[in-house]
Design a protein that fits this description.
Chains A, B: Keywords: DNA-binding, Transcription, Transcription regulation. Two copies of one chain form a homodimer. Chain A is α+β, with helices and mostly antiparallel strands and 154 residues long. Helix content of chain A is 35%, strand content 30%. Chain A has five helices and five strands. The first copy, chain A, has a four-stranded antiparallel β-sheet. In chain A, strand 3 and strand 4 form a beta hairpin. The longest helix of chain A is centred in the first third of the chain and has 13 residues. The relative contact order of chain A is 0.15. Strand 1 of chain A pairs antiparallel with strand 1 of chain B, so a sheet runs across the interface. The first copy, chain A, binds a DNA duplex (17 and 17 nucleotides) through helix 2 and helix 3.
Chain lengths: 154, 154
DNA sequence: GTTGAAAAATTCCGCCG
DNA sequence: CGGCGGAATTTTTCAAC
């Protein structure tokens, strides 16, 4: 499941460039990596085939889109067997953007993105608190996202 | 700073499609949104001009890339005035992918992505613990990322 | 906001080292 | 076999309306 695939230097260089900007043309990547455009195409097709590349998405300024409040939620479960069910129910909430199963006090750790603190309050009260299997939650409101980037390969 | 820009339904539909897959051609978006290709182009140019769209990036399976361990770090600061300096120093650590200024006990909350628990241990001990201004940290290791998605517009 | 046409990129395939 | 190069198709890009 967590296998490590054989990636060569060309693969990593291609990925590093596309992580920075997924819209740069393959022909330009080809020039920078010193291979042909066809090769970039073949390498990307293989990386997608392997499931390493799952697609591309936009980098957005959520603040400017009106989603200025983000929060982390530490969730205490009534018993650990409800994990899968709680995840399913969290997934149904559009404001939940990521869910982690973590070590430590919390069983589940989630991140929410909301328009404002009122919206966050509503989501917590009307959606999260109603989920079966949750004992209680601790909320950490992010007042400012000082940084957010993709991992650097190598 | 946190202004709300006027986006119409067309803008939102275009963004929603590109969030799903930033590589679909503007011509295809045009068909789905019932406008011309030129209009999609103009709308995206404006959204980039406004800074709402900051670019595009790849969606990757970090597990398969050999980065299977992710952790959240609650950081207690010696005094709140060191915030900016601590953020600067965290930014220098390649394994740190996001930094938040939060309410609650921690002054700073960060996320790290590492190859394995040994790598995480090394980063915490050799890099994070050396930062001036940090009193102590609490680590939450994510054993599994059950979900990770972009926010849904509307 | 649309159209249409030039420029560029993608994509595929036969060939070669 | 993996990489290269060229050609057909599609997309991007932009000016005129």
């Amino acid at each position: 499941m967590a296998r490590n695939y054989e990636l060569d230097d060309t693969d990593r260089k291609i990925l590093a460039l596309l992580i920075e900007d997924a819209k740069i043309p393959y022909t330009e990547i080809a020039r920078k990596v010193h291979v042909s455009g066809g090769t970039v195409h073949v390498r990307m097709a293989r990386l997608e085939e392997l499931g390493i590349v799952k697609g591309a998405t936009l980098k957005l300024d959520y603040q400017k889109l009106g989603y200025g409040v983000s929060a982390f939620l530490g969730i205490y479960l009534l018993k650990s067997s409800v994990y899968a069910s709680v995840v399913e129910q969290l997934r149904e909430i559009p404001e939940v953007v990521s869910i982690h199963f973590t070590t430590g006090a919390y069983g589940v750790f989630a991140r929410l993105v909301c328009r404002d603190t009122q919206h966050l309050r509503d989501v917590l009260h009307d959606k999260v608190q109603l989920i079966e299997g949750i004992e209680r939650t601790e909320t950490l409101i992010s007042l400012e996202e000082a940084m957010n980037r993709a991992i650097q390969l190598q």
